[in-house]
Amino acid sequence: MEAIQIRAINNVGVVGGGLIGMSWTSLFLACGVNVVVVDPRPEAQSELDIFVANAWPHLTNLGLTRADNIPKARFSTGFDALEDVDFIQENGPDRIEVKRQLVAEIEAVVAKDVVVASSTSSLKASDIQAGARHPERVLVAHPMNPPHMVPMVELVAGDLTTEPTLLAAEAFYQQMQRVTIRVKKEVAGHLANRLTAALYREAVYLAAEGIAEVEDIDKAITYGPGMRWALLGPNLTYHLGGGAGGYQHYLDHLGPTQEARWKELGTTPLTDEVKSLLVAGIEKELESQDQDTLVQRRDQALVKIFQLKQKYGF
Questions:
Q1: Fewest CB within 10 A of the end CB: N or C in the chain?
Q2: 49 is in which domain, residue-wise?
């Protein structure tokens, strides 16, 4: 098993040209590297061009690029196009058999010291790297959607992933102006998705039990704790909630109220009836705007939030 060397990243291969792959490609192009995108669908090339063009003004406002002319990624339906890349960002479907096949296809072409980073939202790196020729260079690098707008990338090593691979991945994503997080133990969903899943489970329960409408559940987050969470995580938020006594005071005096709520948190199966209830709630929320408009408003607001966080040091 040979060590991965930290190499200069000039050429990046993006495997999978769907929503996440197009977003990664936009970011990588903005940060000045050459990108080749591999996707079996020929139509993915035109979809990619449209996506990058729409993303470019936001990337400019984020300060990630000053280029007036939008660079173009190379596109291929075959893996041979990856022959000269320095880093692989894999974005295939979240099914273990597909991931392993993609790794095999990639390893048949790229150099043995090229890091293979999977964008999987739930699968474990140890499972993905099983059967690989060079499992030491495979890891999970999971972003939040859309990765060109949200800077966090969580890195998770598998059983056979080496420390030099993690260091090389960290160096690359920092070159791409991302905020990297190491998840110390493999768990399904990694870190960020487990946190969001915990909140979503309760949101579904509250809707299914008729405690609140879907729209009001969303408002409770966006006009309540979500405003603080854009600046501070849950631990720092409760530290400030403890006043002069800080986190220790909060835990000592209000910890029991947290435990009481934990005991009553619910779990609701996603039955067809519950799904219909949730979808109807979203359709009501979207009565005044279409989804494309919502995406544009979200991305414009994300730019402003990021700029605000930079201004105040959050």
A1: N
A2: 11-183
